[in-house]
Amino acid sequence: MGIYLDNAATSYPKPKKVLDEVYAFMNDIGASSGRGAYRKALKADRMMYETRKSICKLFKFKKTSNVIFTLNITEAINLLLNGILKEGDHVITSSLEHNSVWRTLKHLERDRGIEISTVECDKYGITDPNNIKNLIKKNTKLIVFNHASNVIGTIQPIKKIGKIAKDNNIPFIVDTAQTAGAIDIDINRDNIDILTFTGHKSLLGPMGTGGLLFNSDIEISPLKFGGTGGDSKLEYQPESIPSKYEAGTPNVAGIAGLKKGIDFLLAKGIINIRKKEKNLVDYTIKKLSEVDEVTIYGPKNSDLITNVISFNVENFRPDELVYKLDSKYNIMLRSGLHCAPSIHRVMGTIDKGAVRIGLGYFNSREDINTLIKALKSLIKNG
Ligand SMILES: Cc1ncc(COP(=O)(O)O)c(C=O)c1O
Question: d(Cα 147, Cα 106) in Å, to the nearest integer?
Fold first, then answer.
């Protein structure tokens, strides 16, 4: 099976109940949701509703119908940025964005004439929220922030940023791709107006699941138009949500699996999960720091980061190192820029990239010991 340390890309393995549920849904129910009145179709509707409820429970949110499903967080972010920003609007974002935010903004800048301001962070990925205040202008329409970097791991002060956004009447969107399911998030406590999530990382669901939670009544145009299973006589997209934003047949089987992933997390408790994962993050940092040839980027403190540790090894190109770890030792890590070039500029690794360890709930100290042994052997023998 090997040692999988790429959970920041997608989590693996998934809890068995997730796999069983996807199979059971496809085998025993198999009907689409929102489109039929026979008993199996109603069971699919019920399951979708129950999944929205589990998502609400996780993020301490009350409005079940304000949970919108998308294919992934990239689609959720595209929906929001395309649906809100108009020519002449100004948006503030972080220096740690994934391309799902960054490229979407750059396309809107080029094609729609929006204006982007980036808040600086230090070389550890730490953002001072006060720097955001200075960037706010009359035409600032949105603040969009990564909750934690997928490269350097640094957790952003979203609660404080959200407060600044609130004080200035600017909607605040958070990308929780790296934190949902790994860190406790309370949509109201953390001052989040729109929370975006992806289902296949720490939420332990299947790929092809994600979405967003509207904690605001800001006007947003849909990204897609089409069938919703209801109001079919209308020639335009219905105004009621979630239908307004959920055109086309959803990934119903995937959403069934996502529910089991979230229920697994709720049963364990996010606080306990964070404790376990922090422990492993600290252990990994300690063991990596003992290898002289290793340079770790980012804060060496699990209070400040999520489950991501990026590093390089003297005299090895990142791609060469991960190739050798995989082919010789069956250890899976990722190298490169990880779809987030701006933070590599801050880290000073834009030319060569870095190797990334993405720890997950099912990793153990044993996995890290094996990795360290393999690294030492490669450093010694090539
Ligand atoms: C911070 C962040 N945002 C967005 C994404 C995009 O996720 P998805 O491919 O599931 O849309 C990722 C995934 O790598 C990420 O780490």
Answer: 20
